[in-house]
Amino acid sequence: MYKEKRIVSWPLMHSYDAQPTCTWGLCTLFYAPYIHEDDVIEEVDNHRPVLLQLDNGGSVVDKQKSYDDHSVVIVGYVGNSHTIDYVVIHDGWDMYEHYLAWGNWGSDTYLVKITPKQG
Protein backbone atom coordinates (compact mmCIF):
# COMPACT_ATOMS: atom_id res chain seq x y z
CA MET A 1 0.00 0.00 0.00
CA TYR A 2 1.34 3.41 -1.00
CA LYS A 3 1.18 6.07 1.67
CA GLU A 4 1.67 9.70 0.69
CA LYS A 5 4.20 11.54 2.84
CA ARG A 6 3.88 15.22 3.60
CA ILE A 7 4.99 17.64 6.25
CA VAL A 8 2.33 19.62 8.05
CA SER A 9 2.88 22.15 10.79
CA TRP A 10 -0.41 22.07 12.64
CA PRO A 11 0.35 24.85 15.13
CA LEU A 12 1.23 27.24 12.32
CA MET A 13 -1.71 26.23 10.15
CA HIS A 14 -4.28 26.51 12.91
CA SER A 15 -2.94 29.17 15.25
CA TYR A 16 -1.40 31.81 13.00
CA ASP A 17 -2.17 33.86 9.91
CA ALA A 18 0.39 34.81 7.29
CA GLN A 19 -0.23 38.29 5.90
CA PRO A 20 1.94 39.32 2.94
CA THR A 21 2.34 43.07 2.69
CA CYS A 22 2.75 42.81 -1.11
CA THR A 23 2.68 40.09 -3.73
CA TRP A 24 3.45 39.70 -7.44
CA GLY A 25 5.34 42.98 -7.70
CA LEU A 26 2.36 45.07 -6.58
CA CYS A 27 4.61 46.90 -4.14
CA THR A 28 6.52 48.51 -6.97
CA LEU A 29 3.35 49.48 -8.83
CA PHE A 30 1.29 51.00 -6.05
CA TYR A 31 3.47 51.66 -3.01
CA ALA A 32 6.56 53.73 -2.34
CA PRO A 33 8.51 52.66 -0.43
CA TYR A 34 7.50 49.05 -0.90
CA ILE A 35 8.50 47.95 2.62
CA HIS A 36 7.65 50.31 5.43
CA GLU A 37 9.98 50.61 8.38
CA ASP A 38 6.96 51.12 10.64
CA ASP A 39 5.72 47.58 9.84
CA VAL A 40 9.05 46.05 10.87
CA ILE A 41 9.39 48.21 13.99
CA GLU A 42 5.85 47.42 15.14
CA GLU A 43 6.21 43.67 14.66
CA VAL A 44 9.66 43.36 16.23
CA ASP A 45 8.80 45.65 19.16
CA ASN A 46 5.81 43.36 19.83
CA HIS A 47 8.05 40.25 19.80
CA ARG A 48 6.75 38.98 16.45
CA PRO A 49 9.39 37.97 13.88
CA VAL A 50 8.72 38.96 10.27
CA LEU A 51 9.44 36.92 7.15
CA LEU A 52 11.34 38.91 4.50
CA GLN A 53 10.97 37.47 0.99
CA LEU A 54 14.09 38.84 -0.68
CA ASP A 55 14.37 39.71 -4.34
CA ASN A 56 17.99 40.31 -5.33
CA GLY A 57 19.01 40.51 -1.67
CA GLY A 58 22.44 41.90 -0.94
CA SER A 59 25.08 40.61 1.44
CA VAL A 60 25.12 41.10 5.18
CA VAL A 61 27.83 42.81 7.20
CA ASP A 62 29.69 39.60 8.15
CA LYS A 63 29.36 37.62 4.88
CA GLN A 64 30.43 38.20 1.30
CA LYS A 65 27.75 35.97 -0.22
CA SER A 66 24.60 37.79 -1.32
CA TYR A 67 21.15 36.44 -0.52
CA ASP A 68 19.69 36.87 -4.02
CA ASP A 69 16.16 35.34 -3.94
CA HIS A 70 16.07 33.91 -0.42
CA SER A 71 13.70 34.21 2.53
CA VAL A 72 15.02 35.35 5.90
CA VAL A 73 13.41 36.09 9.26
CA ILE A 74 13.73 39.55 10.76
CA VAL A 75 14.19 39.24 14.52
CA GLY A 76 15.41 42.74 15.33
CA TYR A 77 16.66 46.03 13.96
CA VAL A 78 19.35 48.63 14.54
CA GLY A 79 18.02 52.17 14.58
CA ASN A 80 15.42 54.07 16.54
CA SER A 81 11.63 54.07 16.74
CA HIS A 82 11.32 55.80 13.33
CA THR A 83 14.32 54.77 11.22
CA ILE A 84 16.06 51.44 10.60
CA ASP A 85 19.73 51.24 9.59
CA TYR A 86 20.01 47.43 9.66
CA VAL A 87 17.60 44.55 10.10
CA VAL A 88 18.80 41.69 12.31
CA ILE A 89 18.05 38.45 10.50
CA HIS A 90 18.25 34.68 10.74
CA ASP A 91 18.93 33.23 7.31
CA GLY A 92 18.43 29.51 7.95
CA TRP A 93 21.97 28.72 6.82
CA ASP A 94 23.49 28.90 10.30
CA MET A 95 22.50 29.66 13.89
CA TYR A 96 23.78 33.25 14.00
CA GLU A 97 22.21 36.67 13.73
CA HIS A 98 23.29 38.75 10.74
CA TYR A 99 22.91 42.44 9.92
CA LEU A 100 21.44 43.38 6.55
CA ALA A 101 21.44 47.07 5.62
CA TRP A 102 17.95 48.54 5.26
CA GLY A 103 16.96 48.55 1.59
CA ASN A 104 19.76 46.20 0.48
CA TRP A 105 17.31 44.26 -1.68
CA GLY A 106 15.44 44.44 -4.98
CA SER A 107 12.12 46.08 -5.73
CA ASP A 108 10.05 42.86 -5.56
CA THR A 109 11.03 42.15 -1.96
CA TYR A 110 8.12 42.01 0.48
CA LEU A 111 7.27 41.23 4.09
CA VAL A 112 5.04 38.50 5.44
CA LYS A 113 3.66 39.20 8.90
CA ILE A 114 2.99 36.11 11.01
CA THR A 115 0.29 36.92 13.55
CA PRO A 116 -1.79 34.89 16.00
CA LYS A 117 -5.28 34.14 14.71
CA GLN A 118 -8.04 36.13 16.35
CA GLY A 119 -10.93 34.18 17.83
Features:
single chain; 119 residues; 8 strands; disordered N terminus
What are the SSEs and their pairings?
Blueprint: H1 10-15, E1 16-20, H2 26-30, H3 37-45, E2 50-53, E3 57-59, E4 66-68, E5 71-79, E6 84-90, E7 98-101, E8 110-116
Antiparallel strand pairs: 1-8, 2-5, 2-8, 3-4, 5-6, 6-7
Main sheet: strand order:
1-8-2-5-6-7
How would you name the oligomeric state of the polypeptide chains in this document?
single chain
Mean pLDDT: 76
β-strand amount: 35-45%
Largest sheet: 6 strands, antiparallel
Protein name: Peptidase C39-like domain-containing protein
Organism: Thermococcus eurythermalis
Can you give a write-up of this model?
- The structure is a single chain.
- This protein has 119 residues and is of the alpha+beta class.
- It has one domain (10-116).
- The protein has helices at residues 10-15, 26-30, 37-45; strands at residues 16-20, 50-53, 57-59, 66-68, 71-79, 84-90, 98-101, 110-116.
- The strands form two sheets. The protein has a six-stranded antiparallel β-sheet with strand order 1-8-2-5-6-7. A two-stranded antiparallel sheet has the order 3-4.
- Strand 6 (84-90) and strand 7 (98-101) form a beta hairpin.
- It starts with 9 loop residues before the first helix and ends with a strand.
- The model is unreliable at 1-14 and 28-33 (pLDDT under 50).
- Residues 37-93 form the Peptidase C39-like domain.
